[in-house]
Amino acid sequence: MLVFCSRSHHMGMSSCISAVFSVSPIKTENINCKHKSKGGYGMKRKIFKPFSEDGGFYISLLIFGAFSVLSGLIGGFQLALIGLSFLAFAVIMVVLLRMVYATRDRAQKAGQAVMSNVTLDFIMHFEMPVVIISTGGDIIWYNKSFSKAAQNTSPLYNFSVQEFLAEKLSMERVKRVAERTITRDGEEERPILVTMRGVQYRLHLNLMQSAGTRYYITVWQDMSQIIELARELTARNPLFAYVAVDNAAEATGFLQTEYRTISAKIAILLKEWSDSLQGVLQEVEKEKYLFVFEEGKLEQLTTQKFEILDKVRDISMSTGSSTPITVSLGVAASGDTLAEKERIATQALDLALQRGGDQAVLKTRTGNEVYGGRSKSVQKKTKVRSRVVAGELVNLIKKSGNVIIMGHKYADHDSVGACIGMARLAMQYCNKVNIVVNINDNNLKNIFRKLRGISIYRDVFVDGATAQDLIEPDTLLVAVDVNNPAHFEAPEIYKNASKMVVIDHHRKTIEYDVQPSITYIEPSASSASELMCEILEQALEPGQLLKEEAEVLFSGILLDTKQFTRNTGVRTFAAALFLRGEGANPNEAQMLFKIELSEFVREAMFENNVVVYRNIIAISVFKGEALAGDKIAASKVAERLLGVEGVLASFALCEIDGTVHISARSSGTINVQLVVEKLGGGGHLSVAGAQLSDMGIGEAKDKLKYAIMEYVKALNKPNP
After folding, report:
1. What's the per-residue H, E or C state across 581-600?
2. Which helix (H) or strand (E) segment is 449 a member of?
């Protein structure tokens, strides 16, 4: 027995105890158990056993006595004397053997009694709680450690073990773990963790069967110290972050003295921030820093909502600059190796910049968390990035067999204009170019009418079903004015295309399953048409852009800038100048927005149902089933509502084919992108939208109000 238990480190603790119970059965009355066993020491011993030591003694005497009597009768006195001698010898031998057997039996019983007492004493005083439970979870037997851990001095027999646990214990799972069940993944069932009186235990289980009844022996391992060590190890886990200054050069007007002063202030501020978190900050390139800190400080950062964003922004306020100076952060809270963490931090920073900067993107194992993003993006004054993208795009087109171009669902003038610009570039280097669009969209009829007389566009426009048949192994898909695959004109094409390019001016809201070959997302740009103008200016020779194409691109800029009154920068007017040089007539571009009287009336129906929420936000709802063209009407109404005194943001809702469309606009004070992101949408600080399915317009309106309320709460919540 002692040898068996000394080898228990090769077995589970519960396996050793199970073996003790099975090899050395203990009287049930000696282990405080109220359930009498029907076998073992609980039954009376049989009085007579034919082949026991006592039976052998009597049988031997009978045999030798019979032999002596027969010898006297047959062989006379001498032979009888010999028989009696053998009988006496046999008696003596039997008596000696009986004494030996009796001595051995007493020794065995004494040894068993000693081992039973030792085993019982060992288990009763074992430092880990031990409980025997029935298949239903009732307590059959327990040791002193369990009574102490349960903080209960009264008898616990027949109580359910569930009564002492913080959460329900699945007996089905107990059975699977005890029987070492293999899961579908080819692994053993995961260990069971339970909490009793605030202490977390791991259950070591073993199945025991007695008299046809099944029991579970459970040994409770206190995991407190292990959990604390794991918590300390996690807190000391190094995390990587990149910090990039967004626009110091633009904010200072490229004046070297101002720029150096601002850069020095930002560097000092970042160093103080790093020291407060006991981290390490190292500048890796101009206006870009690598920040390494312990994971234990991450909660402080998130609780304070990365207050460093506000502190850097305050620098521009103190210097009197009209343009806020901001920073962007990319934080990696996932990854197993240092190299993987650095790569994830780079991706997080790229996402923060593609969303417009002035924000922190935290990448965790479960997804992305975004903090900040209150400032409007500052437009870069150089076209270096567009020149690089133009070169990469041309090379990619040359290597492709055909090019498929698409914008977002319910396309507008900016989406179609960017598609036309991309088609012009692709046609210079590829013979097979198609644009996926709804050719029956009434809002685009003026554009289709303008391009109908151009022979090269006769077979360019196709629907999603036709485009599916055009996909080849070397097809290049170009998505413009959209970066969320769920909002693509034909999402199924995105799933099947092997190469993709994304060109957009909306803030990025989602990660791609397959990384695009080129991602050009510039939230500071006024429109996708503006971005395409910059690319065309770098890639085409003067005069290669047709007049009609230039006017469609011009209409896209007109739409998203509200006639050059919103989101315009130097590069916006430069794009307009380029289009004018290519023959675009602003009046002709404006004519593309002409609508019929019936459409004008439907726009008025939006304005007849307007409410002002929280005194600063206008919400307009189109009652009844709207038409496809009403989505454009909704955006126009949202624009006009900003002209109402006191309105800082506006939302226009309409239901089309079971989907509620929301157009959001802002004067710049409220970030409508952060509002609609809570509804699964996206866009800009001042222009955004969302689509809600499987709900009525009333429910959508309620969800919108709740999203606005959550945004305001987050905005007003002070940092601790």
Report:
1. HCCCCHHHHHHCCCCCHHHH
2. helix 445-451
DSSP state of 40: G
C-beta separation of 530 from 550 below 8 A: no
Distance, CA of 309 to CA of 327 (rounded, Å) = 6
Quickly state the pLDDT bin for 71 (edges 50, 70, 90).
low
Domains of the chain, residue spans: 239-372, 401-591, 597-716
Neighbours of 605 (CB within 10 A): 18
Alpha-carbon distance of 686 to 666, in angstroms, equals 4
Q: What predicted TM-score, i.e. pTM, was given to this entire model?
A: 0.62
Distance, in Å, from the CA atom of 201 to the CA atom of 288, rounded to the nearest integer, reads 47
Cα 131 to the chain's mean position, in Å?
A: 38
- Alpha-helical (H) ranges within 218-255 are 224-235, 248-251
**Fold of the domain built from segment(s) 239-372:** Alpha-Beta Plaits (3.30.70)
Tell me which of 422 and 44 has the higher pLDDT.
422
- For helices 13-23 and 53-124, give the axis angle rounded to 10 degrees: 150
Cα 337 to Cα 481: distance, rounded to the nearest angstrom: 36
Q: Answer for the pair 634, 627: CB distance below 8 angstroms, yes or no.
A: no
**CA dist., res. 259 & res. 514, Å (int):** 39
Q: What are the residues facing 691 on neighbouring strands?
A: 661
Fold of 401-591: inorganic pyrophosphatase (n-terminal core) (3.90.1640)
Those residues with Cβ within 8 angstroms of residue 261's Cβ, 6 or more apart along the chain or in another chain: 319
CB 607 within 8 A of CB 620: yes
The domain 597-716 having CATH identifier 3.40.50.720: the answer here is: no
Confidence label for 181 from pLDDT (cuts 50, 70 and 90): low
The average pLDDT across 78-105 equals 66
The CB density around residue 318, as the number of other CB atoms within 10 Å, is 8
